[in-house]
Structure formats: structure tokens, C-alpha cells
Automatic annotation (TrEMBL):
Name of protein: Chloride channel protein
Membrane topology of this protein: Multi-pass membrane protein
Keyword Transmembrane: yes
Membership in a protein family: Belongs to the chloride channel (TC 2.A.49) family.
CDD domains referenced in this protein's UniProt entry, alphabetically: CBS_pair_voltage-gated_CLC_euk_bac (cd04591), ClC_3_like (cd03684)
Domain CBS, chain residue ranges per copy: 603-667, 700-757
Pfam families: CBS, Voltage_CLC
Length: 763
């Protein structure tokens, strides 16, 4: 019988039935099936994969292909196509995610403008595209053209007066409510997994947990549509996090086109790591930052090969998005900026202050958001999601419309705040007082006194800051306009007090000393760093956004400061906090285990528990095994020599056991409840009239990971983290004592941190 290396270190075929003669005349069970039992080696929903087994399966598959490739030209071609399939898959993921991101950007831009008016040339044009070809726009009112009509102009015939303002206000709120109602209704009806940003769940999936349907085609379809609707409704959220979810859905769906990724959960997670990089690449226009984000923030297992493929996929996605050119500015994002003035060493002080603010804000935001989400889960509020979304949207729209900085989309707001004011800017933030300038550089204007519009904009920005901070806690977006206020303040301080000690020597009258847009960018990085605790990837993303190498040091200073301050106030980032809130079985690699406990303190069964459920290698019938499966809910069972000796033989998964027994009953005659089950290589002679036995050695793991009862728990935790184990058996002098699962470790860690250990379950 030809061996099949489906499982690691087990050169036997799973699901072997029938009787033949082995060496010395001892009956040997024969395999009557040409193919392995369907379903064996797969996982149930809400279970953790066995990384060791999956990697071993892939090594066996690769070894078999390499051996066959030397036998014929056709086999060699199959070997080459197998090696190339990973790069082809990355190409497809990049193309698909880039195309979807371009469509989302274009649709969201159009629907956001639809709340304020419509284009007469074609309702599918947004405001900017509608006025591109118009010859009747002025410099001061470049956004006004005859082709674009506000809702007040269409309904009451004029855009002036209180009645027109109320009409525009009413239409803005109505469109916002319609968009949010459609979004929440589609999610509830068709794809509940499409809610939220998705990054906490993707981190959990990448660690080996299975959530079926979370990255499926329905989730992708509904997430893409509702992301446009949610962003367009004006809720304080961005499309950056959800785009990571969309890209991972693309990666998961395309994996089904390739056998080696469809049948291997570990290989599929390598693709999902690359897809996460693609999501950030199209969200921020930062392919290198996307790769680093996947490496630093979401990936659990990131080999060098995945790094190269992530880089290629992010490159393809960025190229695809650039080809679509969704914003018409030849950039990948709406808020791409370029600063021209150098920064001075003394400016590190305000940059560090922004970092401190970002860290404090990040810690406050996480606590407030988690408290709100916990309240939603534990009270009647969570029973009415549609009503909750509509109320939040109504409050957001009613408060946002009067302030131009909260009325505009978040991408437009960031673009406005990052802007380096030039002569051709008609923005309120750039309306400085006119002063006689003898020499104007082609790159930068000198510092000037702020005009009345700038002070008005400062008040509006201050109100926008408070509004965004409060409403974002509820809606979980992270765009807080903090830095621009400090930047304008520093600029005016330098203009009016350039003789102060801190400005003397580097900021002379008529020079361009302070760039407020740079402060906005540093402030945004500090706040995002405080909330997510990202460092390297965040700095690279911001660098790719601005294209300025010289601003890396300010960004590094602010980002590290915000992380230190936020870590001092709370150890968890927002994604880790949501993972813990939802009870996902995620073993955080950043969390130190500093307690002096042993494996015997954590293993089950405890002293007061019933004895461990085990299967003997040759002494149990089909009925007894089925009864054991029915009476317990464990994911697997240790196989021992006998109940008396408790000497460990191996470990068998519950799902594999159920499928193999069912398959034997259907396909092998004579298998009944009284049939004996054997996990031994050869079977002892059977009584003449006994039913045919069942051999299941092929589904047993012959080399389960074991530790002794006196192994320190910090070593056990490291083993689980680095090998991605589902469970580990505890022995004493070769005798089985108990078992430690991933969930046992998480419960023990929660108990040591004075948290509720029963919260570690999928909810």
C-alpha cells in the first residue's frame, strides 16, 4: 500500500479499513480507499488551527512534487507552476484590491457631495468634477459654477437666506440618515461580519483562529457597498481599517483558485498577511508602510518569503489605484502634501508636546470606546443596532453641518489641515493678512500675520476637535485635528516675537519659519500612534504621504512619545483591547508573562475535576468512542496504552475521529457499534465471529507536544506563541497527567492580571 503523508510524521493513510496479513501472520488492517477521507485534517468553526501539522503537510506536499518533477516533463511543469502560483496569487490580490479601493474612493467622494447638491450635467459627477470644465468660476469662489446646484437652489430657487440654509441643512441630515440606514440594514440582513473595522478579527484569524464567513464573498460584497455608505453618511470614521478587511477578503476568496492555499490553513494565512499590507497600501497610498504595518501590527507568522510577496502585492495594488486615479490629482490619496520649509531643532519641543497629547488622547480614547462598547454589549442598547446607528448619525449630522470643518469628509479635512498655504490657496486657513513681500521664494511664502478668517477657522477647528473627540469614541474613527491649532499658534508667535530667545538666530523677519501643515501631520501621527501603538510602520506611512525625508525625525519623536505616554497609562492598543473585549483566543506576543507558575498549576484536570477523558490504543469499541464524543465537548483526546498505565501514545482530533467513524460505517461492510477501534500498527488476532475492526492509526498525531509537570509556565507560553500550538500534553515520567490548551493559558493570564477568566471565549 502506497503511504500518504497527509499528516506530519505519519507515513500511513488516514481512514484505513479491512483486514489483511502483516508480518509473521499477524492480521494487518488494509486500506480499501484510494483517496484520503474527505474532511479529515480540516477544522470546525471557532477553532484554532494546528500550525505544526499544517506546515508539515505543506512540506510533505512540496517534497512529493519535487520528487515527481524528476520523473517527467509534465511533472516538472507542474512543479514550476506550483512555485509560481504564489506570485500569481499576489498579482491577482493586488489587482482586485486596488480596483475595489478605486471604486470605493470614487463612490464615496460622489455620495459625500450628493448630500450638498447635484450636478446638472450628470448626477454621477461629484462637485469637483462637475466644475472642472466650467469657464464661469472665480478665484475666490472656485467651487461655485452654474452646473452644480445645491438642494436649496433646486427646491426653492436660491442659495441665500435662512430658508435656503434650513433646506440645505435638512437635506444634508436626510441623506446622512438614508446612507447610514442602508448601510446598517444591509449588514444586518446579509453579512453581520461586515460590521466594524475588522482589524481585531483579522489579527485573531492570522494567529490561527477560524471564523468561517468572516472573509467570504458575501462579507466582501456588503463591506464594499456599506463602506461607501458609512463614509458618505458623515459618521466619524475612515475607510483605512475596513480596506484592510476588504483586501483580506479578496485574498481569502482568491486562495480558492489554488489548491495549495485552499487546502492548507497556514499557507492561506501567509496570503492574508500580504493582503493586509495591500489594504494599507491602497488606504494611505503607502506600499512600504503597508508591508511594515502587516509585519508590526497584524501578522502572527511572517516569514521572509511572505515579506517579498507582500511587497509585490502592495506594489501591484498601488499601481492599480494610481492607474484608476480616483481623485484626479495623480495621487493615491486625497490628502497627499509636500512641505518645502526645513524644521528647526527647537521645534522638537512642540512636536514632543503633540506626542504627549496624542498619548493621553489615545489612552482616553481606548478606555472610553471600550466602556461604550461594553455598555452596548451588556445593556438593551445592543438589541437595537439600527436605532443606535440612526441616532448617532442624526446627532453627528445635526452638529456637523454648521461647522465647515466637521461637515466636509474626513479625507478632505485632513487635506485641508495638512495644506501648506500658497498664494493660490483660497482656504479659510490660508487667508493671512497681506504684507509687502520683497522676495517670494518659488517654494514657500514667509510667515505672515493671521487674518480674521484664520482666527475664525481656529475657533471652528477648536470646536471640531472637541466634537470629533467625543463622537469618535462612539463611532471608532481616529482623525483628530489637533496639530494645526498648535502650528498656527507657533507661526504667529514666531511672526510677532521673532526676537525671543527661542526664535533668535533661525527665524528672521520675512522668513518662512513655521509650517502649520507639518504640525497637523505630526499631530495626526501622534494621535494615531497613541490609539494603535504603531511606531515604525506609522512613521513610514506618514513619510510616504508627504514625500519628505527631512520630516522623519519630527514624526519619530512624536510617535515614540505618544507610545510611551499611552503605554504608561494603559498597556493595550485599540485592536488588542477589542480582541480582549470580544473574548477572542489571541495570545499577544507583546505581553510579558512574569508569573512564577508551573504547568501543573494550569493543566486540566484540576484536583477537584473528573479524570482526563482518554482513548486507549486497542481496547475500545466504536460505541464506547461515540459515547465519549457525545458526552464531552473537547476538541481532541489523548491516546494511551491503557487506563491503568496512562502511557502516552498520541493525540487524535475530535473532528477527524467523527468523520473517520462515519465514513467507515458508510463505506465498509460489517462495521457496527461493537467493532473494536485500533490505533496500533498491527492488530492482535480477533475472535472468529467478531465484527471487522477499525484501524484509525492514520488520523493520530504520533508526536504530540509534551512538557513535564514542573515546566515553568513562561516557557510553556513561549512554546505556544512561537509554534502556534492548539494544545500541549503534560506528563510525569512518561505518564500522562493532563492537558494545557491555548484557552487555558489565556484564562490563567487573565486570572493573574485580576481579570475575569471566563471572558476568554468567542462571543
Amino acid at each position: 500500500i502506497k503511504p500518504d503523508n497527509l499528516f506530519h510524521l505519519k507515513p500511513t493513510r488516514c481512514g484505513s479499513y479491512g483486514v489483511g496479513n502483516g508480518p509473521n501472520g499477524v492480521p494487518k488492517l488494509m486500506d480499501l480507499l484510494d483517496e484520503p477521507v474527505p474532511g479529515v485534517g480540516t477544522y470546525e468553526d471557532f477553532n484554532t488551527i494546528d500550525w505544526v501539522r499544517e506546515k508539515s503537510k505543506d512540506r510533505d506536499r512540496h517534497r512529493e512534487i519535487a520528487t515527481k518533477s524528476k520523473e517527467s516533463t509534465l511533472a516538472l511543469m507542474k512543479s514550476i507552476s506550483d512555485a509560481f502560483s504564489g506570485w500569481l496569487l499576489m498579482l491577482l490580490v493586488g489587482l482586485m484590491a486596488g480596483a475595489l479601493a478605486g471604486g470605493i474612493d470614487i463612490s464615496a467622494h460622489w455620495m459625500t457631495d450628493l448630500k450638498e447638491g447635484v450636478c446638472l450635467n450628470g448626477f454621477w459627477f461629484n462637485h469637483e468634477h462637475c466644475c472642472w470644465n466650467s469657464n464661469e468660476t472665480t478665484f475666490q469662489e472656485r467651487d461655485k459654477c452654474p452646473n452644480w446646484k445645491s438642494w436649496a437652489e433646486l427646491i426653492v430657487g436660491t442659495n441665500d437666506g435662512p430658508f435656503a440654509y434650513i433646506m440645505n441643512y435638512l437635506m444634508y441630515v436626510c441623506w446622512a440618515l438614508l446612507f447610514s440606514f442602508l448601510a446598517v440594514s444591509l449588514v444586518r440582513a446579509f453579512a453581520p461580519y461586515a460590521c466594524g473595522s475588522g482589524i481585531p478579527e483579522i489579527k485573531t484569524i492570522l494567529s490561527g483562529f477560524i471564523i468561517r464567513g468572516y472573509l467570504g464573498k458575501w462579507t466582501l460584497m456588503i463591506k464594499t457597498i456599506t463602506l461607501v455608505l458609512a463614509v458618505s453618511s458623515g459618521l466619524s470614521l475612515g475607510k483605512e481599517g475596513p480596506l484592510v478587511h476588504v483586501a483580506c477578503c479578496c485574498g481569502n476568496i482568491l486562495c480558492h483558485l489554488f489548491t495549495k492555499y485552499r487546502r492548507n490553513e497556514a499557507k492561506r494565512r501567509e496570503v492574508l498577511s500580504a493582503a493586509a499590507a495591500v489594504g494599507v497600501s491602497v488606504a494611505f497610498g503607502a506600499p512600504i508602510g503597508g508591508v511594515l504595518f502587516s509585519l508590526e501590527e497584524v501578522s502572527y507568522y511572517f516569514p521572509l518569503k511572505t515579506l517579498w510577496r507582500s511587497f509585490f502585492a502592495a506594489l501591484v495594488a498601488a499601481f492599480t489605484l494610481r492607474s484608476i486615479n480616483p481623485f484626479g490629482n495623480s495621487r493615491l490619496v486625497l490628502f497627499y502634501v509636500e512641505f518645502h520649509s526645513p524644521w528647526h531643532l527647537l521645534e522638537l519641543i512642540p512636536f514632543i508636546l503633540l506626542g504627549i497629547f496624542g498619548g493621553i488622547w489615545g489612552a482616553f480614547f481606548i478606555r472610553a470606546n471600550i466602556a461604550w462598547c461594553r455598555r452596548r454589549k451588556t445593556t438593551r442598547l445592543g438589541h437595537y443596532p439600527v436605532l443606535e446607528v440612526l441616532v448617532v448619525t442624526a446627532v453627528t449630522a445635526l452638529l456637523a453641518f454648521p461647522n465647515s470643518y466637521t461637515r466636509m469628509s474626513t479625507s478632505e479635512l485632513i487635506s485641508e489641515l495638512f495644506n501648506d498655504c500658497g498664494l493660490l490657496d483660497s482656504s479659510q486657513l490660508c487667508n493671512y493678512a497681506n504684507v509687502s513681500v520683497t522676495k517670494i521664494s518659488s517654494d514657500a511664502l514667509p510667515d505672515r500675520p493671521a487674518g480674521p478668517d484664520v482666527y475664525t477657522a481656529m475657533w471652528q477647528l477648536s470646536l471640531a476637535l472637541v466634537f470629533k473627540m467625543l463622537i469618535t469614541v462612539v463611532t471608532f474613527g481616529m482623525k483628530v485635528p489637533s496639530g494645526r491649532l498648535l502650528g498656527v499658534g507657533m507661526e504667529q508667535l514666531a511672526y510677532y516675537h521673532h526676537d525671543w530667545v527661542i526664535f533668535r538666530g533661525w527665524c528672521s523677519p520675512g522668513a518662512d519659519c513655521i509650517t502649520p501643515g507639518l504640525y497637523a501631520m505630526v499631530g495626526a501621527a501622534a494621535c494615531l500612534g497613541g490609539v494603535t501603538r504603531m511606531t515604525v510602520s506609522l512613521v513610514v506611512i506618514m513619510f510616504e504621504l508627504t514625500g519628505g525625508l527631512e520630516y522623519i525625525v519630527p514624526l519619530m519623536a512624536a510617535t515614540m512619545t505618544s507610545k510611551w505616554v499611552a503605554d504608561a497609562l494603559g498597556r493595550e492598543g485599540i485592536y488588542e483591547a477589542h480582541i480582549r473585549l470580544n473574548g477572542y483566543p489571541f495570545l499577544e506576543s507583546k505581553e510579558e508573562f512574569s508569573h512564577k507558575t508551573l504547568a501543573m498549576d494550569v493543566m486540566r484536570p484540576r484536583r477537584s475535576d473528573p479524570p482526563l477523558s482518554v482513548i486507549t490504543q486497542d481496547g475500545m469499541s466504536v460505541e464506547e468512542v461515540e459515547s465519549l464524543i457525545a458526552e464531552t465537548s473537547y476538541s481532541g483526546f489523548p491516546v494511551v496504552v491503557s487506563h491503568e498505565s496512562q502511557r502516552l501514545v498520541g493525540f487524535v482530533q475530535r473532528r477527524d475521529l467523527v468523520i473517520s467513524i462515519e465514513n467507515a460505517r458508510k463505506r465498509q461492510e460489517g462495521v457496527v457499534s461493537a467493532s473494536r477501534i485500533f490505533f496500533t500498527e498491527y492488530t492482535p488476532p480477533q475472535p472468529p465471529n467478531s465484527p471487522p475492526p477499525l484501524k484509525l492509526r492514520g488520523i493520530m498525531d504520533l508526536s504530540p507536544f509534551t512538557v513535564t509537570d514542573h515546566t515553568a509556565m513562561d516557557i510553556v507560553v513561549d512554546i505556544f506563541r512561537k509554534l502556534g500550538l492548539r494544545q500541549c500534553l503534560v506528563t510525569h515520567n512518561g505518564r500522562l497527567l493532563g492537558i494545557i490548551t491555548k484557552k487555558d493559558i489565556l484564562k490563567h493570564m487573565a486570572q493573574m492580571a485580576n481579570r475575569d477568566p471566563d471572558s476568554i471565549l468567542f462571543n
